[in-house]
Amino acid sequence: MGVEQQPVLRIEGLHFHFDTRPVFSDFSAAIEPGITWLRGANGMGKTTLLKLVAGTLTPNRGSIGLGGIDCAAQPLAYRLATFYCGGDLPDLPWLTVQEFLDLHLALYPDAEARQVERQLDAFGVTGTLEQALSTLSLGQHKKVQLSLALALPVRLLLLDEPFNGLDAAAVEYLRGQLGERGARQDACVLLTSHLEPLVEVKRMLDLDR
Ligand SMILES: Nc1ncnc2c1ncn2[C@@H]1O[C@H](COP(=O)(O)OP(=O)(O)OP(=O)(O)O)[C@@H](O)[C@H]1O
Predict the structure, then answer these.
(1) Ligand 1, from 15, 20, 48, 160: best to mutate by most atoms within 8 Å of Cβ?
(2) What's CA 108's distance to the chain center, in Å?
(3) For residue range 155-180, what is the model confidence (pLDDT) as tens digits?
(4) Residue 24 three-state SS
(5) How many whole angstroms separate alpha carbon 36 and alpha carbon 88?
(6) Is the pTM of this model over 0.80?
(7) ipTM of this model?
(8) Index of the ligand 1 atom closest to the CA of residue 49
Protein backbone atom coordinates (compact mmCIF):
# COMPACT_ATOMS: atom_id res chain seq x y z
CA MET A 1 0.00 0.00 0.00
CA GLY A 2 1.33 3.50 -0.82
CA VAL A 3 1.73 6.26 1.74
CA GLU A 4 -1.57 8.14 2.14
CA GLN A 5 -1.65 11.92 1.63
CA GLN A 6 -4.32 12.15 4.32
CA PRO A 7 -3.02 9.68 6.88
CA VAL A 8 -5.45 7.49 8.77
CA LEU A 9 -4.42 5.68 11.93
CA ARG A 10 -5.81 2.16 11.69
CA ILE A 11 -5.94 -0.09 14.72
CA GLU A 12 -7.22 -3.56 13.93
CA GLY A 13 -7.99 -6.49 16.21
CA LEU A 14 -5.77 -5.19 19.01
CA HIS A 15 -5.16 -7.45 22.01
CA PHE A 16 -2.94 -6.32 24.87
CA HIS A 17 -2.43 -7.39 28.45
CA PHE A 18 -0.02 -6.54 31.28
CA ASP A 19 0.95 -9.87 32.90
CA THR A 20 -2.50 -11.29 33.60
CA ARG A 21 -4.45 -8.02 33.35
CA PRO A 22 -6.24 -7.69 29.98
CA VAL A 23 -6.47 -4.10 28.74
CA PHE A 24 -7.54 -4.49 25.09
CA SER A 25 -9.37 -7.42 23.57
CA ASP A 26 -10.10 -7.24 19.83
CA PHE A 27 -10.13 -3.44 19.80
CA SER A 28 -10.34 -1.67 16.43
CA ALA A 29 -10.57 1.99 15.42
CA ALA A 30 -9.82 4.22 12.44
CA ILE A 31 -8.68 7.75 13.22
CA GLU A 32 -8.70 10.35 10.49
CA PRO A 33 -6.82 13.69 10.26
CA GLY A 34 -7.78 16.35 12.79
CA ILE A 35 -8.01 16.13 16.57
CA THR A 36 -9.49 13.03 18.18
CA TRP A 37 -10.30 13.08 21.89
CA LEU A 38 -9.47 9.75 23.52
CA ARG A 39 -11.56 9.55 26.66
CA GLY A 40 -12.42 7.00 29.31
CA ALA A 41 -12.52 6.46 33.06
CA ASN A 42 -9.34 6.00 35.09
CA GLY A 43 -7.60 2.76 34.23
CA MET A 44 -9.53 2.11 31.00
CA GLY A 45 -6.33 2.09 28.95
CA LYS A 46 -5.91 5.57 27.44
CA THR A 47 -2.19 5.87 28.19
CA THR A 48 -1.66 2.23 27.25
CA LEU A 49 -3.33 2.84 23.88
CA LEU A 50 -1.18 5.91 23.22
CA LYS A 51 1.96 3.89 24.03
CA LEU A 52 0.84 1.01 21.79
CA VAL A 53 0.19 3.44 18.97
CA ALA A 54 3.53 5.13 19.65
CA GLY A 55 5.24 1.76 19.32
CA THR A 56 6.70 1.85 22.84
CA LEU A 57 4.47 -1.10 23.87
CA THR A 58 3.95 -4.10 21.61
CA PRO A 59 0.49 -5.61 21.07
CA ASN A 60 -0.02 -9.28 21.84
CA ARG A 61 -2.08 -9.47 18.66
CA GLY A 62 -3.49 -7.12 16.06
CA SER A 63 -2.05 -4.41 13.85
CA ILE A 64 -1.45 -0.68 13.97
CA GLY A 65 -0.68 1.38 10.90
CA LEU A 66 -0.50 5.02 9.95
CA GLY A 67 -1.19 6.16 6.40
CA GLY A 68 -0.14 2.84 4.90
CA ILE A 69 2.93 2.39 7.15
CA ASP A 70 2.67 -0.65 9.41
CA CYS A 71 4.04 -0.18 12.92
CA ALA A 72 5.42 -3.73 13.25
CA ALA A 73 6.62 -4.26 9.68
CA GLN A 74 8.16 -0.79 9.11
CA PRO A 75 9.09 0.34 12.64
CA LEU A 76 11.61 3.00 11.61
CA ALA A 77 9.38 4.66 9.02
CA TYR A 78 6.46 4.44 11.45
CA ARG A 79 8.36 6.03 14.33
CA LEU A 80 9.59 8.87 12.13
CA ALA A 81 5.94 9.71 11.51
CA THR A 82 4.83 9.72 15.16
CA PHE A 83 5.66 11.40 18.47
CA TYR A 84 4.33 10.52 21.90
CA CYS A 85 4.19 13.28 24.48
CA GLY A 86 3.44 11.78 27.88
CA GLY A 87 3.94 12.71 31.47
CA ASP A 88 6.84 10.37 32.34
CA LEU A 89 10.39 11.59 32.64
CA PRO A 90 12.46 10.10 29.81
CA ASP A 91 14.71 7.12 30.56
CA LEU A 92 17.78 9.40 30.76
CA PRO A 93 16.71 12.03 33.33
CA TRP A 94 20.25 13.31 33.87
CA LEU A 95 20.40 14.68 30.31
CA THR A 96 20.20 18.43 30.02
CA VAL A 97 17.24 19.83 28.11
CA GLN A 98 19.59 20.70 25.23
CA GLU A 99 20.96 17.14 25.11
CA PHE A 100 17.44 15.70 25.23
CA LEU A 101 16.38 17.94 22.33
CA ASP A 102 19.54 17.15 20.33
CA LEU A 103 18.87 13.44 20.77
CA HIS A 104 15.41 13.83 19.28
CA LEU A 105 16.63 16.09 16.50
CA ALA A 106 19.07 13.30 15.57
CA LEU A 107 16.25 10.73 15.63
CA TYR A 108 14.08 12.82 13.31
CA PRO A 109 16.42 13.84 10.46
CA ASP A 110 13.85 16.12 8.81
CA ALA A 111 13.34 18.13 12.00
CA GLU A 112 14.66 21.69 12.17
CA ALA A 113 16.41 22.94 15.32
CA ARG A 114 15.10 26.47 14.74
CA GLN A 115 11.51 25.19 14.91
CA VAL A 116 12.23 23.71 18.34
CA GLU A 117 13.87 26.98 19.41
CA ARG A 118 10.81 28.89 18.25
CA GLN A 119 8.52 26.67 20.34
CA LEU A 120 10.76 26.83 23.43
CA ASP A 121 10.74 30.60 23.12
CA ALA A 122 6.95 30.73 22.77
CA PHE A 123 6.52 28.55 25.86
CA GLY A 124 9.13 30.64 27.73
CA VAL A 125 11.48 27.76 28.60
CA THR A 126 14.57 28.71 26.59
CA GLY A 127 16.26 29.46 29.93
CA THR A 128 16.09 25.78 30.95
CA LEU A 129 18.37 24.49 28.17
CA GLU A 130 21.36 23.84 30.44
CA GLN A 131 19.28 22.30 33.26
CA ALA A 132 19.08 18.54 33.80
CA LEU A 133 15.64 17.17 32.89
CA SER A 134 15.28 15.81 36.42
CA THR A 135 15.43 19.36 37.83
CA LEU A 136 12.53 20.74 35.77
CA SER A 137 9.17 21.49 37.32
CA LEU A 138 6.15 19.56 36.05
CA GLY A 139 5.03 22.47 33.88
CA GLN A 140 8.53 23.16 32.52
CA HIS A 141 8.91 19.52 31.60
CA LYS A 142 5.57 19.57 29.82
CA LYS A 143 6.55 22.71 27.91
CA VAL A 144 9.84 21.17 26.74
CA GLN A 145 8.05 18.04 25.54
CA LEU A 146 5.33 20.05 23.83
CA SER A 147 7.94 22.22 22.14
CA LEU A 148 9.37 19.09 20.55
CA ALA A 149 5.95 17.70 19.75
CA LEU A 150 4.92 20.85 17.91
CA ALA A 151 8.24 21.27 16.11
CA LEU A 152 8.78 17.76 14.77
CA PRO A 153 7.52 17.09 11.23
CA VAL A 154 5.35 14.12 12.25
CA ARG A 155 1.97 13.03 10.87
CA LEU A 156 0.66 11.68 14.16
CA LEU A 157 0.91 13.42 17.53
CA LEU A 158 -0.02 11.46 20.64
CA LEU A 159 -0.64 13.82 23.53
CA ASP A 160 -1.37 12.51 27.04
CA GLU A 161 -3.27 15.20 28.97
CA PRO A 162 -1.46 18.01 27.09
CA PHE A 163 -3.04 20.87 29.08
CA ASN A 164 -2.29 19.42 32.52
CA GLY A 165 0.22 21.41 34.55
CA LEU A 166 0.42 24.36 32.11
CA ASP A 167 0.04 27.99 33.18
CA ALA A 168 -2.64 30.17 31.58
CA ALA A 169 -0.35 31.68 28.92
CA ALA A 170 0.88 28.25 27.85
CA VAL A 171 -2.70 26.90 27.70
CA GLU A 172 -3.63 29.75 25.35
CA TYR A 173 -0.58 29.21 23.18
CA LEU A 174 -1.16 25.45 22.98
CA ARG A 175 -4.82 25.98 22.09
CA GLY A 176 -3.77 28.10 19.12
CA GLN A 177 -1.13 25.64 17.96
CA LEU A 178 -3.43 22.63 18.22
CA GLY A 179 -6.24 24.54 16.57
CA GLU A 180 -4.00 25.12 13.53
CA ARG A 181 -2.83 21.52 13.44
CA GLY A 182 -6.36 20.24 13.86
CA ALA A 183 -7.40 22.00 10.67
CA ARG A 184 -4.73 20.25 8.62
CA GLN A 185 -5.58 17.30 6.38
CA ASP A 186 -2.09 15.78 6.57
CA ALA A 187 -1.84 15.29 10.34
CA CYS A 188 -3.67 13.35 13.06
CA VAL A 189 -3.71 14.31 16.73
CA LEU A 190 -4.89 11.81 19.35
CA LEU A 191 -5.16 13.38 22.78
CA THR A 192 -6.37 12.27 26.17
CA SER A 193 -8.17 14.55 28.56
CA HIS A 194 -10.40 13.85 31.54
CA LEU A 195 -12.17 17.16 31.12
CA GLU A 196 -13.51 18.45 27.83
CA PRO A 197 -10.37 19.44 25.87
CA LEU A 198 -9.66 23.16 25.60
CA VAL A 199 -9.49 22.87 21.84
CA GLU A 200 -12.07 21.96 19.22
CA VAL A 201 -12.03 18.23 18.52
CA LYS A 202 -13.30 16.52 15.36
CA ARG A 203 -14.35 13.28 17.03
CA MET A 204 -14.25 11.28 20.21
CA LEU A 205 -12.97 7.78 20.84
CA ASP A 206 -14.59 6.59 24.05
CA LEU A 207 -13.02 3.61 25.81
CA ASP A 208 -15.95 3.40 28.24
CA ARG A 209 -18.24 2.14 25.47
N1 LIG B 1 3.11 -1.24 33.77
C2 LIG B 1 1.93 -1.78 34.11
N3 LIG B 1 1.87 -3.03 34.65
C4 LIG B 1 0.68 -3.59 34.96
N5 LIG B 1 -0.52 -2.99 34.80
C6 LIG B 1 -0.51 -1.74 34.27
C7 LIG B 1 0.70 -1.08 33.91
N8 LIG B 1 0.40 0.15 33.41
C9 LIG B 1 -0.95 0.25 33.47
N10 LIG B 1 -1.49 -0.88 33.98
C11 LIG B 1 -2.91 -1.16 34.15
O12 LIG B 1 -3.52 -1.13 32.86
C13 LIG B 1 -4.78 -0.48 32.92
C14 LIG B 1 -4.79 0.71 31.96
O15 LIG B 1 -3.90 1.72 32.46
P16 LIG B 1 -3.74 3.12 31.76
O17 LIG B 1 -2.66 3.87 32.47
O18 LIG B 1 -3.57 2.90 30.31
O19 LIG B 1 -5.18 3.76 32.03
P20 LIG B 1 -5.69 5.27 31.76
O21 LIG B 1 -7.02 5.12 31.07
O22 LIG B 1 -4.65 6.06 31.06
O23 LIG B 1 -5.90 5.77 33.25
P24 LIG B 1 -5.89 7.25 33.90
O25 LIG B 1 -7.11 7.95 33.40
O26 LIG B 1 -5.99 6.95 35.35
O27 LIG B 1 -4.60 7.91 33.51
C28 LIG B 1 -5.03 -0.11 34.38
O29 LIG B 1 -5.83 -1.11 34.95
C30 LIG B 1 -3.63 -0.10 34.98
O31 LIG B 1 -3.70 -0.45 36.34
Answers:
(1) 48
(2) 15
(3) 999 999 999 999 999 999 999 999 99
(4) strand
(5) 22
(6) yes
(7) 0.98
(8) 18
